[in-house]
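SAMPLE LOG
Freezer: B-3
Tube label: C17
Construct: single chain, 404 aa
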Amino acid sequence: MQELKIGIIKEGKVPVDRRVPVTPTQVETLLNTYDNVTVHCQRSDIRCFEDSEYQQAGAILVDDVSDCDIILGVKEVPINMLADGKTHFFFSHTIKKQEYNRGLLQTILEKQIRLIDWECLTNLQHQRLIAFGRYAGIVGAYNGILTFGKRYNLFHLRPANECFDMEDMQKEYSKVKLPAIKIALTGGGRVSKGAMEVLTGMKIRKVSPVEFLTEYFNEPVYTQLNTRDYNQRIGGGSFSRDEFYQNPANYESSFGQYAKKADILIAGAFWDPKAPVLFTKEDANRSEFKIRVIADITCDIEGSIPSTIRPSTIADPVYDYNPSDNKEESAFADEGNITVMAVDNLPCELPRNASEDFGKEFLKHILPNLVGEDKDQIIERATICQNGKLMPDYAYLQDFVDGH
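STRUCTURE (predicted):
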């Protein structure tokens, strides 16, 4: 059996990302499972795990991984670190024709690199097999509650990135003392499930959307809203999930009813630009619009939430949105403002846990298809390009590559 050299690259993107695609313990498992695989780990001073931990697990420490067959990373690889003709795994942020990564994709094609995008690794039901979404939800919900506590001077939590890991962060939950507020959470995937772990961990009661709208509670509560709960057919008629995803223009937002009741919005739902926005800046100006803290985990700029003017950073996670002038102001500047948390790399705040989950999914769902036969074409479907050409599923990117 041919030897396979797997390289773990040092993350080179700025701001620094401390996550890893596989942890030292997982490297050890991998090496014990596959006789023909060796792991080469590029020395790094920024990872959430030490180089020595990888060495003890059996990885070979190197300064350069460009001679490896497969190179694993998390974020976009800087152009000067790309290895000609090799297979690279990372989140490329190119499949939606992201302008800022046009040069990256052009270079990948020039260097005849085989690019496999983590985001595109799916099963036959088109469900993603590997993602950091759960931790985006966990940290996003935590930050939302932290921000509410800070805004109203109710309690002070340590930021997630100052906690060693999730277990350490969970020690902060006992400090949360909320009045009888209502929290609306959108989405039904990994992100919202992660957010619910935190809300439940903080002993915040979950209620149905109908109860949320119609009942009074003397304790903090939250509701989880799926697409059907806040979108309605234009001109009436019942909601059809299939129709909504195929022809979202036939629908309009009905989120306003929740905005009149909610104090906090945690936005965890994927948004298609063809779908209705959650609310408009005109809605945010209405006196009955009650939401004063928004944790926008999705962080779509100029997307479904008009108050998300820009992404924020882990170091400076919140800003205020002045709805009457449609502009950003400093955080907690005015009672009439909406305070926005829109950090766009939330899993980086708990890099150890996020990496452990990610690596577990890699070993279970992805690696067997790399080492053995790619039976369900999982790797093939996620391959954006190879040998200097876009793969058929990604041929739509050609005009983007050509600069049109």
